[in-house]
Design brief:
The chain has about 150 residues and is of the alpha+beta class. The chain has helices at about 5-10, 20-30, 35-45, 50-55, 80-95, 140-145, and strands at about 70-75, 110-115, 125-130, 130-135. It is built from six helices and four strands, in the order H-H-H-H-E-H-E-E-E-H. Bound molecules: FE2/S2 (inorganic) cluster.
């Protein structure tokens, strides 16, 4: 475990109710919660890894895989899907060299997520890069957008 993290969570030793703040601190230090960190926290709190995963997976804020520098979310909800969302996703995967089903580029520059709906259906098909929403996407627009990064 990172020394800084060990220091940050030391005051919580033995406090099982401190799981959420500890997970937040760990993710804040490392960026995500790899299995070895979950093991360390389990030992630290006297919990099992399964107990920690059971709690942490309930919260959308916790990530268990390393994230890329930029996150691209491709909507695959109904409105986007019927407007070509599948083709937009394929264009992103092809341009970033991400195999279908994978979530990150080899250089860790981009993470790719498939999401159900952003609530921006009128702009379908939609992708979101970091926090910016891009609507009425086409494959050509996706290529132009990705070239900016
Ligand atoms: S289905 Fe894509 S934004 Fe709603």
């Amino acid at each position: 475990m990172l020394e800084e993290l060990a220091e940050a969570i030391a005051p919580y030793r033995g406090q099982k109710g401190a799981l959420i703040p500890i997970l937040q601190k760990a993710q804040g230090e490392i960026g995500y919660l790899p299995e070895e960190i979950i093991s360390e926290i389990a030992n630290f709190l006297g919990l099992t890894k399964n107990e920690i995963y059971g709690v942490a997976s309930f919260y959308a804020q916790f990530r268990f895989e390393r994230q890329g520098e930029h996150t691209i979310k491709c909507c695959q909800g109904t409105a986007c899907y019927v407007q070509g969302g599948k083709s937009i996703l394929k264009t992103v995967e092809d341009n970033l060299n991400i195999e279908p089903g994978k979530t990150i580029t080899d250089d860790y520059k981009f993470s790719l997520e498939r999401v159900a709906c952003f609530g921006s259906c009128a702009l379908a098909p939609v992708i979101v890069v970091d926090k910016t929403v891009y609507g009425r996407m086409t494959s050509a627009k996706v290529r132009q957008l990705l070239a900016q990064y």
